[in-house]
Amino acid sequence: VGLPAAVADAAMSAEERAKAETRLAGERLEGQDGKTLSLIGQARVERGDQRLQAERIDYAQDSASASASGLVRYDDATTGFYARSARAELETNQTELTDVRYALKARRGQGRAASVRTQSSVRTELSKVSYTTCPDDQPSWEIRADQIDIDHEQGTASARGFQLRLGQIPIVYA
């Protein structure tokens, strides 16, 4: 599994996302109209600038929420993720992912995280995380942290349990 493409899409406001049509697709569909639908095999849920793809997606129509498993990919205007599992609340624009590889589109950064939580296109929280702008799996520099919080509107980030590493050597830590 590679990294998500780091090409920025046009960001949508929460109001634009709320008005956008939700599209569902998969090789097989199971469920009951108006309730939960299970998309199986090349499953996709798309809404505005949000895209969730996986081997299986269970979509609750009443709450516009989706749970995904099996080679999960989530993209929106600011970030792209590959994960083991994901849960997306499309109405509130919140997503939670586990065992993640990610790419920050506008900042051209990438890394891994034990978990990622997004809140709209405004905020991203990553735990047990690494970050670098180096293009490969053996970065010449890397930031590692217990937690990184990114404010996309302000263009800022804060970290806890922080290390700056050159190769495998920590040179700054807190």
Summarize this entry quickly.
It is built from one helix and 13 strands. It has one helix at residues 14-19; strands at 22-25, 28-31, 36-47, 50-60, 65-75, 79-89, 94-104, 109-119, 123-131, 141-151, 156-160, 163-166, 169-173. The chain is elongated, with a radius of gyration of 17 Å.
Number of helices: 1
- Average pLDDT number: 85
The total beta strand count reads 13
**Percentage of residues in DSSP E strands:** over 45%
Order of helices and strands: HEEEEEEEEEEEEE
Question: Between the first and last Cα atoms, what is the distance in angstroms?
Answer: 32 Å
Radius of gyration: 17 Å
In helices, the fraction of residues equals under 10%
Mass-distribution shape:
elongated
SS-based class: mainly beta
Largest sheet: 13 strands, antiparallel
Query: Are there runs of 5+ residues with pLDDT below 50, and where?
Result: 1-9
